[in-house]
Amino acid sequence: MSPPVKPSPPADPAEFAARGAERAGLARIAALALPALVVLAAEPLYVLVDTAVVGHLGRVPLAAVAVGGTILSVGVWLGTLVAYGTTGRAARRFGAGDRPAAVAEGVQASWLALLTGVLLALLAQVIAAPLTRALAADPATAAAAASWLRIAALGAPGLLLAAAGNGWMRGVQDTRRPLVIVLGANLLSAVLCPVLAYPAGLGLTGSAIANVIAQSLSGGLFLWAVIRERTALRPRPRIIGEQLVAGRDLLIRGAAFQACWLSATAVAARFGVAAVGAHQIALQLWFFAALALDAVAIAAQSLVGAALGGGDGAAARDVARRVTLVGAVAGTAFAVVAAAGAGVVPGLFTDDPAVHAQAAIVWPWFVGLLPCAGIVFALDGVLIGAGDVAFMRTMTLIAAAFGFLPAIWLAYALELGLSGVWAGLALFMLVRLVLILHRWRGARWAVLGATR
Predict the structure, then answer these.
(1) With 0-12 CB in 10 A as exposed, 13-18 as middle and 19+ as buried, what is 80?
(2) Domain residue extents for the chain
(3) Residue 45 CB: number of other CB atoms within 10 A?
(4) How far is CA 33 from CA 167, 294, 397, in A?
(5) pLDDT digit string (tens) for 384-409?
(6) Residues 245-300: pLDDT tens digits?
Protein backbone atom coordinates (compact mmCIF):
# COMPACT_ATOMS: atom_id res chain seq x y z
CA MET A 1 0.00 0.00 0.00
CA SER A 2 1.34 3.40 -0.89
CA PRO A 3 2.28 5.68 2.04
CA PRO A 4 -0.20 8.38 3.00
CA VAL A 5 0.38 11.76 1.45
CA LYS A 6 -0.75 14.82 3.32
CA PRO A 7 -1.97 17.43 0.85
CA SER A 8 -1.21 21.08 1.35
CA PRO A 9 -4.02 23.07 2.95
CA PRO A 10 -5.54 26.03 1.16
CA ALA A 11 -3.39 29.16 1.24
CA ASP A 12 -6.08 31.07 3.08
CA PRO A 13 -6.42 29.80 6.69
CA ALA A 14 -9.97 31.15 6.85
CA GLU A 15 -10.90 29.06 3.82
CA PHE A 16 -9.35 26.00 5.46
CA ALA A 17 -11.36 26.55 8.66
CA ALA A 18 -14.55 27.16 6.73
CA ARG A 19 -14.07 23.97 4.76
CA GLY A 20 -13.63 21.95 7.95
CA ALA A 21 -16.70 23.55 9.56
CA GLU A 22 -18.81 22.84 6.48
CA ARG A 23 -17.79 19.21 6.46
CA ALA A 24 -18.68 18.78 10.10
CA GLY A 25 -21.93 20.75 10.11
CA LEU A 26 -25.11 19.05 11.35
CA ALA A 27 -26.91 20.15 8.19
CA ARG A 28 -24.31 18.36 6.08
CA ILE A 29 -24.61 15.22 8.22
CA ALA A 30 -28.38 15.30 7.75
CA ALA A 31 -28.02 15.91 4.00
CA LEU A 32 -26.01 12.70 3.70
CA ALA A 33 -27.83 10.63 6.33
CA LEU A 34 -31.43 11.16 5.21
CA PRO A 35 -31.01 9.97 1.60
CA ALA A 36 -28.90 7.07 2.92
CA LEU A 37 -31.77 6.16 5.25
CA VAL A 38 -34.20 6.01 2.31
CA VAL A 39 -31.78 3.85 0.31
CA LEU A 40 -31.24 1.52 3.29
CA ALA A 41 -34.99 1.19 3.88
CA ALA A 42 -35.92 0.61 0.21
CA GLU A 43 -34.78 -3.03 0.05
CA PRO A 44 -36.43 -4.18 3.34
CA LEU A 45 -39.68 -2.46 2.33
CA TYR A 46 -39.60 -4.23 -1.04
CA VAL A 47 -39.00 -7.54 0.77
CA LEU A 48 -42.20 -6.90 2.75
CA VAL A 49 -44.12 -6.32 -0.51
CA ASP A 50 -42.61 -9.45 -2.05
CA THR A 51 -43.48 -11.48 1.04
CA ALA A 52 -47.07 -10.26 0.95
CA VAL A 53 -47.41 -11.15 -2.75
CA VAL A 54 -45.89 -14.59 -2.32
CA GLY A 55 -47.87 -15.20 0.87
CA HIS A 56 -51.09 -15.07 -1.13
CA LEU A 57 -49.81 -17.85 -3.38
CA GLY A 58 -49.94 -20.34 -0.52
CA ARG A 59 -48.02 -21.80 2.39
CA VAL A 60 -45.40 -23.65 0.32
CA PRO A 61 -44.38 -20.65 -1.84
CA LEU A 62 -44.12 -18.48 1.27
CA ALA A 63 -41.92 -21.04 3.02
CA ALA A 64 -39.88 -21.44 -0.17
CA VAL A 65 -39.09 -17.74 -0.51
CA ALA A 66 -38.19 -17.64 3.20
CA VAL A 67 -35.67 -20.46 2.73
CA GLY A 68 -34.31 -19.16 -0.57
CA GLY A 69 -34.17 -15.60 0.69
CA THR A 70 -32.15 -16.67 3.73
CA ILE A 71 -29.53 -18.21 1.44
CA LEU A 72 -29.55 -15.23 -0.92
CA SER A 73 -29.02 -12.87 2.03
CA VAL A 74 -25.34 -13.84 1.81
CA GLY A 75 -25.22 -11.72 -1.36
CA VAL A 76 -26.79 -8.78 0.47
CA TRP A 77 -24.23 -9.16 3.25
CA LEU A 78 -21.35 -9.18 0.76
CA GLY A 79 -22.87 -6.12 -0.91
CA THR A 80 -22.83 -4.24 2.39
CA LEU A 81 -19.15 -5.10 2.82
CA VAL A 82 -18.35 -3.84 -0.69
CA ALA A 83 -20.26 -0.59 -0.13
CA TYR A 84 -18.76 0.15 3.29
CA GLY A 85 -15.24 -0.74 2.22
CA THR A 86 -15.45 1.47 -0.87
CA THR A 87 -16.97 4.52 0.84
CA GLY A 88 -14.04 5.21 3.16
CA ARG A 89 -11.39 4.73 0.46
CA ALA A 90 -13.23 6.89 -2.08
CA ALA A 91 -13.94 9.58 0.54
CA ARG A 92 -10.23 9.91 1.36
CA ARG A 93 -9.37 10.43 -2.31
CA PHE A 94 -12.22 12.90 -2.68
CA GLY A 95 -11.15 14.84 0.41
CA ALA A 96 -7.62 15.07 -0.99
CA GLY A 97 -9.07 16.88 -4.01
CA ASP A 98 -8.62 13.92 -6.37
CA ARG A 99 -12.12 13.04 -7.53
CA PRO A 100 -10.89 10.88 -10.45
CA ALA A 101 -8.97 8.71 -7.98
CA ALA A 102 -12.11 8.43 -5.83
CA VAL A 103 -14.08 7.27 -8.86
CA ALA A 104 -11.24 4.88 -9.72
CA GLU A 105 -11.90 3.19 -6.37
CA GLY A 106 -15.45 2.71 -7.59
CA VAL A 107 -14.21 1.21 -10.86
CA GLN A 108 -12.10 -1.38 -9.06
CA ALA A 109 -14.90 -2.11 -6.57
CA SER A 110 -17.21 -2.64 -9.55
CA TRP A 111 -14.82 -5.20 -11.04
CA LEU A 112 -14.68 -6.98 -7.68
CA ALA A 113 -18.47 -6.83 -7.36
CA LEU A 114 -19.06 -8.13 -10.88
CA LEU A 115 -16.69 -11.07 -10.50
CA THR A 116 -18.10 -11.99 -7.09
CA GLY A 117 -21.69 -11.65 -8.33
CA VAL A 118 -21.10 -13.90 -11.34
CA LEU A 119 -19.44 -16.46 -9.08
CA LEU A 120 -22.42 -16.42 -6.69
CA ALA A 121 -24.89 -16.76 -9.57
CA LEU A 122 -23.04 -19.78 -10.99
CA LEU A 123 -22.55 -21.35 -7.57
CA ALA A 124 -26.27 -21.08 -6.84
CA GLN A 125 -27.08 -23.18 -9.90
CA VAL A 126 -25.01 -26.01 -8.44
CA ILE A 127 -25.75 -25.87 -4.72
CA ALA A 128 -29.35 -24.61 -4.67
CA ALA A 129 -30.93 -28.07 -4.32
CA PRO A 130 -28.70 -29.49 -1.56
CA LEU A 131 -28.78 -26.24 0.42
CA THR A 132 -32.55 -25.90 0.33
CA ARG A 133 -33.00 -29.57 1.22
CA ALA A 134 -30.76 -29.03 4.24
CA LEU A 135 -32.81 -26.05 5.41
CA ALA A 136 -36.33 -27.23 4.56
CA ALA A 137 -37.69 -30.49 5.96
CA ASP A 138 -40.64 -30.48 3.54
CA PRO A 139 -39.62 -31.80 0.05
CA ALA A 140 -42.11 -29.56 -1.77
CA THR A 141 -40.80 -26.47 -0.01
CA ALA A 142 -37.18 -27.45 -0.73
CA ALA A 143 -37.90 -27.99 -4.43
CA ALA A 144 -39.77 -24.69 -4.77
CA ALA A 145 -37.02 -22.83 -2.87
CA ALA A 146 -34.31 -24.31 -5.12
CA SER A 147 -36.21 -23.24 -8.25
CA TRP A 148 -36.71 -19.71 -6.88
CA LEU A 149 -33.07 -19.43 -5.76
CA ARG A 150 -31.61 -20.47 -9.14
CA ILE A 151 -33.49 -17.64 -10.84
CA ALA A 152 -33.13 -15.00 -8.10
CA ALA A 153 -29.36 -15.58 -7.85
CA LEU A 154 -28.98 -14.30 -11.43
CA GLY A 155 -29.51 -10.84 -9.95
CA ALA A 156 -26.38 -11.16 -7.75
CA PRO A 157 -24.06 -9.34 -10.20
CA GLY A 158 -26.47 -6.40 -10.34
CA LEU A 159 -26.93 -6.43 -6.57
CA LEU A 160 -23.19 -6.20 -5.92
CA LEU A 161 -22.60 -3.66 -8.70
CA ALA A 162 -25.23 -1.45 -7.05
CA ALA A 163 -23.44 -1.84 -3.70
CA ALA A 164 -20.14 -0.77 -5.27
CA GLY A 165 -21.87 2.20 -6.91
CA ASN A 166 -23.45 3.23 -3.64
CA GLY A 167 -20.04 3.01 -2.00
CA TRP A 168 -18.09 5.32 -4.29
CA MET A 169 -20.97 7.78 -4.71
CA ARG A 170 -21.25 8.14 -0.94
CA GLY A 171 -17.50 8.67 -0.92
CA VAL A 172 -17.78 11.65 -3.28
CA GLN A 173 -20.84 12.85 -1.31
CA ASP A 174 -23.27 12.28 -4.17
CA THR A 175 -26.48 11.18 -2.47
CA ARG A 176 -29.02 12.14 -5.14
CA ARG A 177 -28.22 9.57 -7.82
CA PRO A 178 -28.16 6.52 -5.49
CA LEU A 179 -31.51 7.64 -4.10
CA VAL A 180 -33.08 7.90 -7.57
CA ILE A 181 -31.58 4.64 -8.85
CA VAL A 182 -32.42 2.49 -5.82
CA LEU A 183 -35.93 3.87 -5.36
CA GLY A 184 -36.68 3.55 -9.07
CA ALA A 185 -35.47 -0.05 -9.27
CA ASN A 186 -37.33 -1.14 -6.13
CA LEU A 187 -40.52 0.60 -7.26
CA LEU A 188 -40.31 -1.22 -10.60
CA SER A 189 -39.82 -4.51 -8.78
CA ALA A 190 -42.75 -3.82 -6.46
CA VAL A 191 -44.97 -3.31 -9.52
CA LEU A 192 -43.60 -6.26 -11.50
CA CYS A 193 -43.81 -8.77 -8.66
CA PRO A 194 -47.63 -8.95 -8.36
CA VAL A 195 -48.09 -8.55 -12.14
CA LEU A 196 -45.78 -11.46 -12.94
CA ALA A 197 -47.05 -13.58 -10.05
CA TYR A 198 -50.80 -13.18 -10.73
CA PRO A 199 -51.99 -11.91 -14.15
CA ALA A 200 -48.94 -13.36 -15.94
CA GLY A 201 -49.47 -16.63 -14.07
CA LEU A 202 -45.81 -17.17 -13.16
CA GLY A 203 -46.42 -17.52 -9.44
CA LEU A 204 -43.28 -17.90 -7.35
CA THR A 205 -41.14 -17.73 -10.49
CA GLY A 206 -42.56 -14.25 -11.15
CA SER A 207 -41.27 -13.09 -7.77
CA ALA A 208 -37.76 -14.28 -8.62
CA ILE A 209 -37.83 -12.68 -12.07
CA ALA A 210 -38.96 -9.34 -10.60
CA ASN A 211 -35.99 -9.47 -8.23
CA VAL A 212 -33.55 -10.15 -11.07
CA ILE A 213 -34.94 -7.37 -13.28
CA ALA A 214 -34.78 -4.76 -10.52
CA GLN A 215 -31.30 -5.74 -9.32
CA SER A 216 -29.91 -5.93 -12.86
CA LEU A 217 -31.40 -2.54 -13.73
CA SER A 218 -29.99 -0.97 -10.57
CA GLY A 219 -26.55 -2.49 -11.11
CA GLY A 220 -26.57 -1.46 -14.77
CA LEU A 221 -27.41 2.16 -13.91
CA PHE A 222 -24.64 2.35 -11.32
CA LEU A 223 -22.24 0.81 -13.87
CA TRP A 224 -23.28 3.35 -16.48
CA ALA A 225 -22.71 6.14 -13.94
CA VAL A 226 -19.11 5.06 -13.35
CA ILE A 227 -18.47 4.66 -17.09
CA ARG A 228 -19.71 8.22 -17.69
CA GLU A 229 -17.04 9.53 -15.32
CA ARG A 230 -14.50 8.87 -18.12
CA THR A 231 -12.07 7.18 -15.75
CA ALA A 232 -9.84 4.32 -16.89
CA LEU A 233 -11.89 1.13 -16.70
CA ARG A 234 -9.18 -1.53 -16.75
CA PRO A 235 -8.85 -3.66 -13.59
CA ARG A 236 -5.98 -2.75 -11.27
CA PRO A 237 -5.08 -5.80 -9.15
CA ARG A 238 -3.19 -3.76 -6.52
CA ILE A 239 -6.23 -1.63 -5.65
CA ILE A 240 -8.56 -4.63 -5.78
CA GLY A 241 -6.17 -6.42 -3.40
CA GLU A 242 -6.27 -3.50 -0.95
CA GLN A 243 -10.07 -3.51 -1.12
CA LEU A 244 -10.08 -7.24 -0.43
CA VAL A 245 -8.00 -6.71 2.71
CA ALA A 246 -10.54 -4.18 4.03
CA GLY A 247 -13.36 -6.49 2.97
CA ARG A 248 -11.74 -9.42 4.76
CA ASP A 249 -11.71 -7.55 8.06
CA LEU A 250 -15.33 -6.45 7.62
CA LEU A 251 -16.26 -10.01 6.67
CA ILE A 252 -14.73 -11.41 9.86
CA ARG A 253 -16.49 -8.71 11.86
CA GLY A 254 -19.81 -9.59 10.21
CA ALA A 255 -19.28 -13.29 10.87
CA ALA A 256 -18.84 -12.50 14.58
CA PHE A 257 -22.18 -10.69 14.56
CA GLN A 258 -23.88 -13.62 12.84
CA ALA A 259 -22.47 -16.05 15.40
CA CYS A 260 -23.88 -13.88 18.20
CA TRP A 261 -27.38 -13.58 16.72
CA LEU A 262 -27.59 -17.31 15.91
CA SER A 263 -26.39 -18.22 19.41
CA ALA A 264 -28.89 -15.86 21.01
CA THR A 265 -31.76 -17.39 19.05
CA ALA A 266 -30.57 -20.92 19.82
CA VAL A 267 -30.45 -20.22 23.56
CA ALA A 268 -33.78 -18.38 23.54
CA ALA A 269 -35.37 -21.39 21.80
CA ARG A 270 -34.29 -23.59 24.72
CA PHE A 271 -36.53 -21.56 27.03
CA GLY A 272 -39.67 -22.43 25.08
CA VAL A 273 -41.76 -21.38 22.09
CA ALA A 274 -43.11 -18.23 23.74
CA ALA A 275 -39.61 -17.12 24.71
CA VAL A 276 -38.15 -17.53 21.22
CA GLY A 277 -41.20 -15.78 19.74
CA ALA A 278 -40.71 -12.75 21.99
CA HIS A 279 -36.98 -12.80 21.31
CA GLN A 280 -37.62 -12.80 17.56
CA ILE A 281 -39.94 -9.79 17.80
CA ALA A 282 -37.44 -7.78 19.84
CA LEU A 283 -34.49 -8.85 17.68
CA GLN A 284 -36.19 -7.86 14.42
CA LEU A 285 -37.08 -4.48 15.92
CA TRP A 286 -33.44 -4.17 17.01
CA PHE A 287 -32.33 -4.86 13.42
CA PHE A 288 -34.77 -2.23 12.15
CA ALA A 289 -33.39 0.35 14.59
CA ALA A 290 -29.84 -0.59 13.58
CA LEU A 291 -30.78 -0.06 9.93
CA ALA A 292 -32.08 3.44 10.65
CA LEU A 293 -29.12 4.36 12.85
CA ASP A 294 -26.74 3.13 10.14
CA ALA A 295 -27.75 6.17 8.08
CA VAL A 296 -25.78 8.31 10.55
CA ALA A 297 -22.84 5.89 10.24
CA ILE A 298 -22.87 6.24 6.46
CA ALA A 299 -22.72 10.04 6.73
CA ALA A 300 -19.80 9.62 9.14
CA GLN A 301 -17.96 7.34 6.69
CA SER A 302 -18.16 9.92 3.92
CA LEU A 303 -17.34 13.01 5.98
CA VAL A 304 -14.56 11.50 8.09
CA GLY A 305 -12.89 9.93 5.07
CA ALA A 306 -13.03 13.22 3.17
CA ALA A 307 -11.65 15.22 6.10
CA LEU A 308 -8.74 12.83 6.68
CA GLY A 309 -8.05 12.63 2.96
CA GLY A 310 -7.86 16.43 2.90
CA GLY A 311 -5.34 16.44 5.74
CA ASP A 312 -7.81 18.04 8.16
CA GLY A 313 -7.66 15.99 11.36
CA ALA A 314 -9.53 18.66 13.32
CA ALA A 315 -12.49 18.45 10.94
CA ALA A 316 -12.48 14.65 11.18
CA ARG A 317 -12.61 14.83 14.97
CA ASP A 318 -15.36 17.43 14.79
CA VAL A 319 -17.38 15.13 12.53
CA ALA A 320 -16.80 12.26 14.97
CA ARG A 321 -18.00 14.39 17.88
CA ARG A 322 -21.09 15.60 16.04
CA VAL A 323 -22.17 12.23 14.63
CA THR A 324 -21.73 10.71 18.09
CA LEU A 325 -24.12 13.34 19.42
CA VAL A 326 -26.56 12.73 16.56
CA GLY A 327 -26.35 8.97 17.12
CA ALA A 328 -27.02 9.34 20.85
CA VAL A 329 -30.02 11.59 20.21
CA ALA A 330 -31.40 9.26 17.53
CA GLY A 331 -30.90 6.19 19.75
CA THR A 332 -32.63 7.95 22.65
CA ALA A 333 -35.52 8.94 20.38
CA PHE A 334 -35.94 5.30 19.33
CA ALA A 335 -35.83 4.30 23.00
CA VAL A 336 -38.60 6.76 23.90
CA VAL A 337 -40.80 5.46 21.06
CA ALA A 338 -40.09 1.84 22.01
CA ALA A 339 -40.87 2.49 25.67
CA ALA A 340 -44.15 4.17 24.75
CA GLY A 341 -45.10 1.19 22.58
CA ALA A 342 -44.24 -1.48 25.13
CA GLY A 343 -47.87 -2.45 25.63
CA VAL A 344 -48.85 -2.16 21.98
CA VAL A 345 -46.04 -3.24 19.65
CA PRO A 346 -45.85 -6.96 20.64
CA GLY A 347 -49.59 -7.18 19.94
CA LEU A 348 -48.97 -6.13 16.34
CA PHE A 349 -46.99 -9.34 15.83
CA THR A 350 -49.01 -11.87 17.82
CA ASP A 351 -52.05 -12.17 20.09
CA ASP A 352 -50.48 -14.96 22.17
CA PRO A 353 -50.53 -13.92 25.89
CA ALA A 354 -47.50 -16.09 26.67
CA VAL A 355 -45.41 -14.30 24.05
CA HIS A 356 -46.62 -10.95 25.42
CA ALA A 357 -45.47 -11.99 28.90
CA GLN A 358 -42.01 -12.91 27.59
CA ALA A 359 -41.83 -9.67 25.58
CA ALA A 360 -42.40 -7.73 28.80
CA ILE A 361 -39.21 -9.34 30.14
CA VAL A 362 -37.19 -8.39 27.05
CA TRP A 363 -38.54 -4.87 26.59
CA PRO A 364 -36.58 -3.01 29.30
CA TRP A 365 -33.35 -4.46 27.90
CA PHE A 366 -34.34 -3.52 24.35
CA VAL A 367 -35.24 0.05 25.32
CA GLY A 368 -32.18 0.55 27.51
CA LEU A 369 -29.75 -0.60 24.81
CA LEU A 370 -30.94 1.81 22.10
CA PRO A 371 -29.10 4.98 23.25
CA CYS A 372 -25.89 2.97 23.61
CA ALA A 373 -26.45 1.51 20.14
CA GLY A 374 -26.85 4.99 18.66
CA ILE A 375 -23.38 5.96 19.90
CA VAL A 376 -21.69 2.69 18.91
CA PHE A 377 -23.17 2.61 15.40
CA ALA A 378 -22.20 6.25 14.76
CA LEU A 379 -18.62 5.60 15.85
CA ASP A 380 -18.57 2.45 13.72
CA GLY A 381 -19.12 4.78 10.78
CA VAL A 382 -16.33 7.07 11.95
CA LEU A 383 -13.80 4.23 12.09
CA ILE A 384 -14.93 2.70 8.79
CA GLY A 385 -14.55 6.10 7.17
CA ALA A 386 -11.08 6.36 8.68
CA GLY A 387 -10.20 2.93 7.29
CA ASP A 388 -9.61 1.58 10.80
CA VAL A 389 -11.35 -1.70 9.97
CA ALA A 390 -8.67 -3.96 11.48
CA PHE A 391 -9.38 -2.47 14.91
CA MET A 392 -13.13 -2.88 14.36
CA ARG A 393 -12.63 -6.55 13.48
CA THR A 394 -10.58 -7.15 16.63
CA MET A 395 -12.95 -5.16 18.83
CA THR A 396 -15.98 -7.15 17.65
CA LEU A 397 -14.21 -10.49 18.12
CA ILE A 398 -13.21 -9.50 21.68
CA ALA A 399 -16.74 -8.38 22.53
CA ALA A 400 -18.21 -11.61 21.12
CA ALA A 401 -15.68 -14.08 22.52
CA PHE A 402 -15.22 -12.58 26.00
CA GLY A 403 -18.56 -10.84 26.52
CA PHE A 404 -21.58 -11.99 24.60
CA LEU A 405 -21.07 -15.72 23.97
CA PRO A 406 -19.97 -16.70 27.52
CA ALA A 407 -22.81 -14.61 29.00
CA ILE A 408 -25.64 -16.17 27.03
CA TRP A 409 -24.41 -19.74 27.42
CA LEU A 410 -24.11 -19.06 31.16
CA ALA A 411 -27.69 -17.81 30.98
CA TYR A 412 -28.66 -21.17 29.47
CA ALA A 413 -26.74 -23.15 32.07
CA LEU A 414 -28.29 -21.20 34.97
CA GLU A 415 -31.75 -21.07 33.30
CA LEU A 416 -31.89 -17.27 33.42
CA GLY A 417 -34.38 -17.06 30.56
CA LEU A 418 -34.63 -14.12 28.18
CA SER A 419 -33.23 -11.76 30.78
CA GLY A 420 -29.97 -13.69 30.62
CA VAL A 421 -29.95 -13.70 26.82
CA TRP A 422 -30.47 -9.96 26.60
CA ALA A 423 -28.02 -9.33 29.41
CA GLY A 424 -25.51 -11.00 27.10
CA LEU A 425 -26.51 -8.63 24.32
CA ALA A 426 -26.11 -5.72 26.72
CA LEU A 427 -22.62 -6.90 27.70
CA PHE A 428 -21.71 -7.22 24.01
CA MET A 429 -22.75 -3.60 23.38
CA LEU A 430 -21.07 -2.36 26.57
CA VAL A 431 -17.72 -3.93 25.67
CA ARG A 432 -17.92 -2.46 22.17
CA LEU A 433 -18.86 0.94 23.61
CA VAL A 434 -15.88 0.99 25.99
CA LEU A 435 -13.40 -0.14 23.34
CA ILE A 436 -14.65 2.18 20.60
CA LEU A 437 -14.74 5.21 22.91
CA HIS A 438 -11.18 4.45 23.97
CA ARG A 439 -10.13 4.28 20.33
CA TRP A 440 -12.01 7.47 19.49
CA ARG A 441 -10.28 9.41 22.28
CA GLY A 442 -6.86 8.38 20.95
CA ALA A 443 -5.11 9.49 17.79
CA ARG A 444 -4.34 6.22 16.02
CA TRP A 445 -7.53 6.16 13.95
CA ALA A 446 -7.09 9.67 12.51
CA VAL A 447 -4.42 8.93 9.89
CA LEU A 448 -4.12 11.82 7.43
CA GLY A 449 -3.72 11.48 3.67
CA ALA A 450 -5.39 10.20 0.54
CA THR A 451 -4.70 6.60 1.61
CA ARG A 452 -4.35 4.98 4.99
Answers:
(1) middle
(2) 1-23+252-452, 56-235
(3) 12
(4) 14, 8, 28
(5) 999 999 999 999 999 999 999 899 88
(6) 888 888 899 888 878 887 887 888 888 888 888 887 888 788 888 888 899 999 99
